[in-house]
Structures
1.
Amino acid sequence: MIHLEKRAEPSKTWTAFTPVLAVILTMIAGGLMFAALGKDPFEALRTIFYDPLFSEQFSAYSRPQLLVKAGPLILIAIGLSLGFRAGIWNIGAEGQYIIGAICGAAVGLALYPSQSWLIYPVMILAGAFGGWAWAMIPAILKTRFNTNEILVSLLLVYVAEQLLASMALSTLRNPEGNGFPGSRNLSQHWATSNPELISGTGMHIGVLFGFIAVIMAYIMLNKHMLGFQIRLTGESPRAAQFAGVNPTRLILICLGTSGALAGLAGLFEVSGPAGQVSIDFNVGYGFTAIIVAFLGRLHPVGILLAGLLMALTYIGGELAQFMLGLPGASIQAFQGMLLFFLLGVDVLTNFRIRIGHGGKK
Amino acid sequence: MSDLLLDIKGLTKAYPGVVANDDVSFSIQKGEVHALLGENGAGKSTLVKMIYGLVRPDKGDMQLKAATFAPQEPRAARASGVAMVFQHFSLFDALNVAENIALGMENPPKQRELAKRITEVSQAYGLPLDPTRMVGDLSAGERQRVEIIRCLLQDPSLLIMDEPTSVLTPQEVEVLFKTLRKLREEGTSILYISHKLEEIRAICDAATILRRGKVVATSDPKTASARELAELMVGSTLHQPERATQELGDVMLEVNDLSTASASPFGTSLKSINLKVRKGEVLGVGGVAGNGQDELLAALSGESLSSANSVIIDGNPIGNLGPNDRRHIGVLSAPEERLGHAAAPDMSLTENALLTGSKRENLAENGFINWGKTREFAEKIISDFDVRTPGPSHVARSLSGGNLQKFVIGREILQRPEVLVVNQPTWGVDAAAAADIRQALLDLAAAGTALVVISQDLDELMEISTNFAALHHGHLSETRPCKGLTVDEIGLMLGGADAAA
Amino acid sequence: MDLSAINPLVLITTLMIAATPILLAALGELVVEKSGVLNLGVEGMMITGAICGFAIAVETGNPAIGMLAAMVGGAMLSLIFAFLTQILLANQVATGLALTLFGLGLSSLLGQGYVGVKPPSTPKIEIPLLADLPIVGPVLFQHDMVVYFSIFMVVVIWATLKYSRLGLVLRAVGESHDAAHALGYKVVRIRIMAIMFGGAMAGLGGAYLSLVRVPQWVDGMTAGAGWIALAIVVFASWRAGRVLLGAYLFGGVTILQLNLQAAGVNLPVEYLSMSPYLITILVLVIMSAKGGRAALGAPAALGRVFHASS
C-alpha cells in the first residue's frame, strides 16, 4: 500500500527537479499518444524538440521563432505568476491580451499615416492600459462585491473575442482593404511597427520587455516587501492580514500588473508578428501562459525557461504538422498533459511516498 | 475478571522520527472513570485514536469484554460499543444538531424520531439541547453536549472524552461531572483524558500516566497528591514563575465602548468593551472558547478596525489604524493560532521574523528588504528564547508547537512593546516551555509594558495576572483584582452573571 | 427588423433545449462542490463528452449509446482530476484549468474525422396525454429523453441532498473533511465518486450540445458553456432548484439574443453574442454582493486540500 507522508519541510531538490521529471513523463506519454495516432514516436519527438533548433534544414527559420513565440508567453506568465502566488486567479489573460492589442492598435491606426517616433511609445502605453483596464473589471468586482475573479476574468475572454470580431469586421477595418476583414497592417508602417531588433534572432521589443519583466519580478519577489507580501498572502492569508497586508491593494496590484503585461504582449504581437488586428490574430497565448507560469513553478527564472520550452513545442508542433501530418490539436493535448504531470509530480516536493504498511490512510 | 472492560497490551505505534506509543499496557474496569494523563505530545491522542479505530497499532493487542478488539475504522469501534467525544473537529457548523448526531450513528432513525430521542436523552442527563438549531450558532459548552448526546444515543460501554472541560466554565464542569457520575452508576466506563490534575482527582477512579509515549505509572488519583501526579507527568520539578511586586504606572491602553462585528459567519461580535491597562500591569482575560477572544485580539492588533477613539494608547486614539501603524507606536500582539495566523507555516523563520518585525526593527528600507539584518533578528529570537531548531532557514511548521510559540512570543517581546496582547500563550505547549513563556511575560511587565493576556486556562491567568476580566458572548465583565477572587466568583464572571447585573 | 417573427412558444421550447447542456453540467458540478471540491474543468469535460458522444453516436447510429459514451468519457477525464487532487493533493484550481486545456486539445484531436458529419437524430418522446394539451403540450411535453432526464435529475439531487443519508454524508464531507474523517467517513472515496458523477453529467451535457442542440461537431463548440455552468452553481447558492432556474434563465438569454439576431435588430451581432456572458457576470455580481460565503450556502471546505495526517 502506498501512502503519503508530509515532509517537515518542502524538499529543495524536488522543487527544482519536478519540472524536469514532468517534461520527461510528458515525452513518454506524448510518445504513446503519437504512436496511437500512427506516427513514429521517436521521429515525432525529435521533430518537435530537436529539429527546430538543430536541423540544418529548419533551424534557420525556426530558431528566431523561438523568441518570437516565447516573448509573449513569458511576458504574460510573469504577470500571472504574481497573482497565482498570492492566490489571486486571473485566468482571463487571453482577454486582456486581446483588449491590449485592440487599444494599442487603435492608437496607431488613429494616427496613421503620421510618421512621428512618438507614436509607438504611445501605442505601448495604450496597450498596457487596455489590458490593465480589462483586468480591473474582475479586480474591482472582487474587491467591491467579492465576486469570484476566476469566473469573471474567464467570461470576459469571450466578451473580448466578440469585441475583437467587431473591431476587425467594422470599427478598425482597413478602409483600403477591399472589404476584407482585418485592420491596416501595422508592421508594414515603421511608426506603428514592432520590428525585429537584431536580424535573424527573432528579438523584438516585446521579447526585450519580457526579459525586463523577468528581472523586475525576480527583484520584487526576493528583495522587496511587496513581493514578500504577495508570497505571504498566498502561503497564509490570515498571517498576511496579521502582518498588515491590505488585501484590496494586493488584488488591484496583482490583477492590474498581469493585465497590463498581457495587454503589452497583445500590442507587441499585433504590431509585430501578427501585423494586424484580425478576427483570429490571438492564438491562445493567454491560456498557454498559465501552463508556462506553473511549469516555471511561478518563479521568474523558471518562467523564462518554461516559456522557451513551450515556444519550442509550438514551433516543433507546426513542424511536425507540416512534416509528419501530426494533427495540430495533438500539441494542445500535449501541453495539457505537461501541466497534469507537473501538478502530479509536485506531490514529491511536499510529501514522501511510503510504500509498505501504515494502512490506507 | 468479569469486571474487566478493556485490556490493552503492548500497544506500539511509531511515526517517522518519533515513537508515539511505546509498549503501552493498561486496563479499564466496568463502570470506572479512568484518567489518561500526560503532557501534550505524550502520546495520549495517538492511543485513543487506536482505541477508536482511526489509527492502527504497529504492535500489541486489545481485548474488549474478553474478546479480541482490533477496530479497522471508527465505525467498527462504535459497533463494539466504544464512543468518543472529541476536543476539536468533529462537528459540522452548517448542519443542525440532529444532522450532526445522525452522522455519528450507524443506523440513525428517521429525522423526527431522532429529534424525539435527542430531547429525551438530553433531559435524562440534564443536558438541554434543541435538535433543530444550527451547530455553528451554539456555544462551546452546547457543542460538547451535541457530542456527548451523539455518543449516549448508542449506549456505549466505553466513552472516551478528550479534554472535555477545556471549553467549560467551572459551573458547567459541575454539570458535566454529574452526567459522568450518572453514567458510571449505570455501568458505563469512561476514559477521561486531561492534564488538569484537580479534575482528575475529583472524578476519576484510576489514572494511567503517559510520558513520551510510555506508561510511567498507574495510580489512584484519590490518594496521590496533585504534585506527585504532576511530577510523574512532567518528569521533573517545575519552575514556578516569579512575580515581582511593583507599583503600576499610568494608564497605557484604554478601550472605550468598542464594538465590532465578527468577520466569520459563526464568530462572536464584540459588544461595547471597556478596559484600562496600566504600565506594568497584566490584565488576564478569561472566557470559554468562542466568546470573542479572537475578535478582541483582532481589534487590539489592528486586524479589525474600529472608530479612532475606541482604542487609545497613551492618550492617542488609534482605533482606526492598521496592524503596522500600531506596531510603529508599540502595540504588538500574538494571536492564538500559531500556524497560519501568527506565522506562515511554509515560510522560513527568517521570513516569519520579517512578518511582524519589518517596521520596528527597520528590516526594510524604501521597501527593499535587508535580509542580513532580518536573519540576525531571527537568530536573536532563536537564541534569546531557546527555540530548538537547526537554524532560521527552516520553515515554521517544522518546529514543535512549544518551540514555535516561543519564537512567536519572542519575536514580539524583542521588539520592546509598549503594549503586548497575547491570546492563549501556552496552548498546546509542554510544561517547561509554558513556564518559560509565562516568566518572559512577567519580566516584560516588570519592565513596564502593559500586557493583555487572553487565555482559557484559569490557572495560568491566576498565576500571572494583576487584574482579571471575563469575556462572555462578546461582553467583557468589569475588571477585578486577581487577589482574593474565588473560583465561584470567576465562574460567575465567565458565565456572564456580571454583565447581567 | 421584425420582432413579430419571434414566437414566444417556440422560444420556450428552444430555451429548454439551449439550457439543458448547462443544466446537466451545473447539476454535476453542484454535487462535486457540495462534497467540498472545486473542479474548474467543467468546460474540458463537456467538450470531451461532446466529441465522445458524437463519435460513438455516429459510429453506432444510436444517439442513446453516444450519450452513454459521453458520460463515460466525461467521467474518465474527471478521474484524472480526481487522482491528481485527491490522491496526489494537487491544487484544485490549477488542476481544473489543466483539465479544461487538455480537454480542448484532446477533443479537437478526437474530432478530426468528424467535422461536417451529420449525427443520427435523437428522437423526441411525446408524453402520452400531456403532449396533446393545447399550447403547454408541444412546449413542455414533446422533448427528447435528455431534457426530461435533466429535470428528473434536478428533483433527484434536491431530494438526495435534503433527505437522504447519502446527501447528508456528502454535505458533511464538504462542510468539514476533518470532522468527517474523525467520524470515520472515507473522505477521499466519497469525493472521488462525486467528481466522477460531475464528470459524467458534464459529459452528457456536452453530448447534448453536439448531438441535439447544434447538431454537429465543431472545435471548441462548448464556447464557455462549462464556465457558465460553474457560474450558475454560484448563482444558485448551491441549491438544485435554483440551478434549474439559473440554467433556464441563461437559456432564455441565449435564445432571445439569437432570435434578435435573426430578426435583424439594429445592433451588431457581436454585441448580441456577448450578452449571455455579460449577463452571467452581472448575475454573479448581484449574488456575491448580497452576502458572505456561508450565507450563500457555499460548502465550508470548498477547494481545500484534505490530507489525513496521523
2.
Amino acid sequence: MSINLTLLIVMGVLYACGIYLILERSLTRVLLGLMLLANATNILILTTGGYAGLAPLFTKETNPDSYNDPLPQALILTSIVISFAVTAFMLGIIYRTWVLARQDEIQDDLEDRRVAETPSFDAEDDAIVPLETSEFAVTPASTSDHEHPEATETPNTSTTQEGGSA
Amino acid sequence: MNLANLSPLAVLLPILGAALAFLLIRHHTAQRVVSIGILSATLLLECLLLMSVWDGGTTSVTLGGWLPPWGVVLVVDQFSSLMLVVSTVVSLAVLIYATGQGMADGDQEAPVSIFHPTYLILVAGVSNAFLTGDLFNLYVGFEILLTASYVLMTLGGTGPRIRAGVTYVVVSVVSSVLFLIAIAMIYGATGTITMADLAIKLAELDQGTQNLLHVMLLVAFGIKAAVFPLSFWLPDSYPTAPAPVTAVFAGLLTKVGVYAMVRTETLLFPGDTLNVPLMVVALLTMVVGILGALAQSDIKRLLSFTLVSHIGYMVFGLAMSSVAGLGAAVFYVAHHITVQTSLFLVTGLIERRGGSSSIDRLGGLAKLSPLLALLFFVPAMNLAGIPPFSGFLGKLGLLQAGVELGTPLAITLVVGGVVTSLLTLLAIARVWNRAFWRKPEDAEYPDPVLQTPGNVGVLPRTMVGSTAGLVVFGVALTVFAGPLFRVADGSAGIMLDRSAYIHSVLGDSVEVPPLAQPDEAQTGGAK
C-alpha cells in the first residue's frame, strides 16, 4: 500500500501537539488536545484507504480498481460525529467549572490527598500496648504528670525508677 | 424462526425507550413506567436469547443487508448472551433503586428527568458492545456507553462531580482514541474489521505486526477495564457520582472492557503470545488494588479499589487460555458484576441511614438497622470469597485452573489470588467492625444521625427492595452455580475453538486457520 507523505506528516504533527496539550492543566487546552488527537486519528484512518480514487458510485464503464475505498470514510464520519459530541460535552464541563470555581484548571482530589497524607500509624490498630496492663501498676510518666497526684503513690514510682536505673 | 434474529432488539429497545423517556421528560411517573417496562422487556428478550444458545451454538445476524465481511454482524453465543442477561438484571435493579431514590429525594442531587433516558442509552451501549461481531461497531458501542456515562458521572454538576468527571472523560477519550488508532491500523493491515474475518486474516500477518496490533488493543481495553498500570483513574472518579450511578458503573463498565479483552485474546489473537505479561499484570492488579483498598476510610473508595483488584482475577483466568481458566473467568465476571453492584447499592443505603460513607463517622449500624447489616454482610462475604458463596466457587475454579497449569508464574498467581482474597476479607472486616459492629459513640467523628434515637424510616422501600433483590440474585448465582459453570465452561470451549464463531458469521465453507500450537493452546501453552 502506498502512503501520502503529506498526510502522514500532518498526522504526526497533530498527534504531537495533541499529546502536548492534553498534558496541560488548563481544561481548554486539554480539550484542544483531545480534538487534535481525534483529527489526527481521522487522518490515520483516511490514509488506510490508500490514494484518492474515484467516488464509489457505481457506473458500468469504471474499472473497479480506480474506486476509492469507501469504508474508511464511513468510519471517519462516525468518529467525527462522536468527537463532536464529546467536544460539546467537554465545553459544557468547562463552562460549569468556570461557573463553580472561576477557574479553568483541573482540580485536585481532596480525599485522595487526605488519604495520602494520613500517617501509616493507626491508633486503633498500631498503638503500642503497654506491657503491664494492670490498673494498679503505676508507670513513671503518668504519676509524674497529673494522673495520680496522691502522695501515697509517689515513693512507689521512685523505687521503680531506681530499680530501672540500677 | 430463529430467536437470535431478535438480538438487535436488545440494543434497539433501550434506545427507543430512551427516546420515549425523553419525550416524557415532564411526566416523571410515566417516565419511570416506560423505562422500567422497556428494561424488563429487554431482560425477557435476553433471557430468551440465552435459552436459545444455552446448550452451545452460535448464531449471527447480519444488519442492513450487507453480507458479513463488509457489513455489521451481531453474534449471539453463550458468553455474550450470559453477559447480556446478567448486565440487564443488574441495570434493572439499579434503575428501580434510582427511581426509589429519585422519588424520595426530588431533583436536587440527581435530576431524574435526564437520568432515565441517559441510563437507557448506557444500557443500549453495553448491549451493543456485548453483541457486536464487528470491531468498529464495538468502538461505537463503547462510545455510546461512555458518552452516556459522562452525563451520568457529572449528573447535577456539583463541584466534586465535575472534578471527577474531567478525569474520567479525558482518560476515556484517550483510551477511545487508542482503540480507534488500533482499528485504523488493523484495517490498514488486513482490509477488514469484521472480527470473524480478522480471526482468519490477522493470522496471515507477520508476528511483529500482530504483536503491535495485539498490544494496542489490549492497552485500549485495559484502560477501560482498569487493569493495574492503567487503573488509577477509577478510584479517583467513581466514588463521587450518585450511588446508583457508581453501582452500575462498577458493575458493568469495567466488565465491558474485560469482555473486549476476552474476545481479543480468544478470537483475534489466539494462542499464548502475551500470556506471560498478562499474568504479571493480573498479579499486580490484584495485589496493588487491594493494598489501595486497605488504606481507604471511605467505603465507596474502598470498594472502588476492591473493584480494581478483582479485575485481576478475570485477567488471570483469561491469561491461562485454558478451558478451565477461561470458564472460571467467565463465571467470575458474572459473579463480580452482581456482587460489586449490590455492595455499592448497599453503600448508598448506608449513606442514607448513617449520614456518611466514611468508616470514621459510622458505627452501630448493625443494631440500628439489622436488615441493612444483612444486606451488606452477604455480598461482602461473597466478594471476599467465603464458602459457600459464588465468589468462593469462582476463585476456586481459577485457582484449580492455575494449579493445573502448574508453571511457576501460575503458581505465584494462585498464591497472589489467595492473599488478595484474604486482604479483601480484611478490608471488608474493617468496614464491618467499624460501621456495623462498634457503638456509635466509639466512632472518631460520629455522625449525629447515628445518635438520634428513633430516627428510623429513612430508607425507602423501593431502594431496600431492589438491593435485596440483587443480593438474592447474587445468592442465586451460588445456588445455580452448577448449570452456570457448565455454560461458562461451554462458552470457554467454544471461544477457544473459534470455528463455531467464524462459521456462524462467514458461512461453513470458510477454512479456520489452526492455532499456532493447537495442543498447547488447549492446555494453556505450558512452556
